[in-house]
């Protein structure tokens, strides 16, 4: 079994719905815990599980119908079923010495709740929509790569984003979804974001470059504005404030384009290739070249690697890191000759065998066929 977690794409109404259910879940947990604390355990014998079941029965038959609690009837009953189950679980863990005595959940705690399909497992279709039992259909930020069979769904919020996670049986993950079984080498570059040894290329989107130019222009045009200085007690002019607001918007726009591009690229690669070889980047070495370092951090190579790493779980593929000293750019893929390759050289012209190849493709081919001794798995 392993868990798949995907981001939901919610509108305001749906966000409210999720928040309400999370509130419901917290309410039930605290309600059950409170009653457990009030119970005279000398008078009522039996384990916590049995007692919580009784509390649940009373809640269903009586408490739920009381004035002031009508709102609970508008929400999914699977929430309180699961919330009571989680309270039971907390008590079991405490009895076994595996956890602390259950604590009340606070409003500021992470919002989450669990629902399940009461009639057994359900089939989730591949694609950008997900049907969550008792809650309905929701859009996803990224599509599900294949069909899954599952029963329990946990919805949670992190940094104002909502996620749904569910467990699937590991053996049911189709490995067949990878088009390419042989290792593919991926060379990351400033000119072309990613070049694969099978010839595919991933170029950073044009709007990104446009936005970057716009940003540069904005900063240059506003170079003489009174931008304010807190230490010297200089207040920013109104025009400077406007400039800041515009700048922040452009920055957010760029970040969004990049995020979108990286997600699409890593998903496509994880889906297509069973084994991916990428260079183990050396930060320290790159800092020496400031211009390159800025370009690289801008392009999001680290984010790219992080995403490839965690997506291994989703797509059942493997990502291997190639030793950073392996001369993938300097080696001729055809004959193995090693020669200097300044960054400005876009074509590899082998001095030994005369082979010419695109610089990035040559590097990618070398990364694909690197000896296993130079590889280590990328931990998700
Ligand atoms: Zn050669």
**Mean model confidence by pLDDT:** 85
Shape: globular
Please state roughly what percent of the residues sit in beta strands, choosing from under 5%, 5-15%, 15-25%, 25-35%, 35-45% or over 45%: 15-25%
Counting helices, strands and paired strands, the structural category is alpha+beta
Low-confidence runs: none
Can you tell me about this structure?
It is built from nine helices and 16 strands. With 380 residues, it is α+β, with helices and mostly antiparallel strands. It has two domains: 171 residues, no CATH class; 201 residues, no CATH class. Strand 4 and strand 5 form a beta hairpin. The two termini are 17 Å apart. The site of zinc ion (ZN) has 8 residues, from loops. Zinc ion binds next to loops.
Task: Give a short summary of the structure.
The protein is α+β, with helices and mostly antiparallel strands and 380 residues long. It has helices at residues 12-38, 48-61, 77-95, 206-221, 238-272, 283-287, 290-299, 301-315, 359-368; strands spanning 2-9, 112-116, 122-124, 127-132, 136-144, 148-150, 152-158, 161-168, 184-188, 194-196, 201-202, 275-279, 318-322, 347-349, 356-358, 375-377.
Blueprint of the fold:
Elements: E1 2-9, H1 12-38, H2 48-61, H3 77-95, E2 112-116, E3 122-124, E4 127-132, E5 136-144, E6 148-150, E7 152-158, E8 161-168, E9 184-188, E10 194-196, E11 201-202, H4 206-221, H5 238-272, E12 275-279, H6 283-287, H7 290-299, H8 301-315, E13 318-322, E14 347-349, E15 356-358, H9 359-368, E16 375-377
Parallel strand pairs: 9-12, 12-13
Antiparallel strand pairs: 1-5, 1-8, 2-7, 3-6, 4-5, 7-8, 9-10, 10-11, 13-16, 14-15
Bound molecules: zinc ion.
Residues 332, 334-335, 337, 350, 352-353, 355 line the site of zinc ion.
């Amino acid at each position: 079994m392993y868990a798949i977690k995907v981001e939901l794409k919610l509108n305001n109404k749906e966000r409210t719905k999720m928040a309400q259910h999370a509130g419901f879940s917290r309410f039930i947990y605290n309600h059950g815990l409170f009653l457990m604390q009030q119970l005279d355990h000398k008078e009522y014998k039996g384990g916590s599980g049995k007692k919580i079941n009784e509390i649940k029965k009373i809640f269903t038959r009586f408490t739920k119908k009381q004035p002031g609690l009508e709102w609970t009837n508008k929400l999914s009953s699977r929430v309180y079923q699961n919330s009571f189950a989680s309270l039971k679980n907390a008590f079991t863990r405490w009895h076994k010495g595996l956890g602390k005595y259950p604590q009340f959940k606070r409003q500021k705690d992470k919002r989450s709740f669990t629902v399940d399909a009461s009639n057994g497992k359900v089939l989730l279709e591949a694609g950008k929509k997900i049907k969550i039992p008792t809650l309905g259909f929701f859009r996803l930020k990224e599509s599900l790569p294949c069909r899954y069979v599952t029963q329990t769904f946990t919805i949670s919020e992190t940094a104002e984003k909502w996620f749904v996670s569910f467990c699937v049986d590991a053996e049911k993950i189709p490995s067949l979804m990878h088009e390419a079984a042989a290792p593919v080498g991926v060379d990351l570059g400033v000119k072309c974001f990613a070049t694969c040894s099978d010839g595919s290329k991933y170029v950073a989107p044009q709007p990104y470059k446009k936005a970057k130019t716009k940003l540069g222009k904005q900063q240059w045009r506003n170079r003489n504005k009174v931008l304010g200085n807190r230490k010297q007690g200089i207040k920013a002019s109104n025009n400077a404030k406007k400039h800041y607001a515009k700048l922040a918007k452009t920055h957010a726009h760029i970040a969004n384009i990049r995020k979108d591009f990286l997600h699409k690229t890593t998903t496509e690669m994880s889906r297509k290739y069973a084994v991916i070889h990428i260079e183990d980047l050396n930060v320290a070495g790159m800092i020496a070249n400031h211009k390159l370092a800025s370009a690289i951090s801008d392009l999001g190579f680290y984010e790219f690697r992080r995403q490839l790493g965690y997506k291994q779980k989703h797509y059942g593929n493997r990502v291997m890191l190639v030793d950073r000293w392996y001369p993938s750019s300097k080696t001729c893929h055809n004959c193995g000759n090693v020669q200097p390759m300044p960054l400005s050289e876009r074509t590899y012209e082998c001095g030994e065998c005369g082979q010419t190849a695109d610089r990035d493709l040559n590097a990618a081919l070398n990364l694909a066929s690197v000896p296993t001794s130079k590889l280590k798995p990328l931990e998700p």
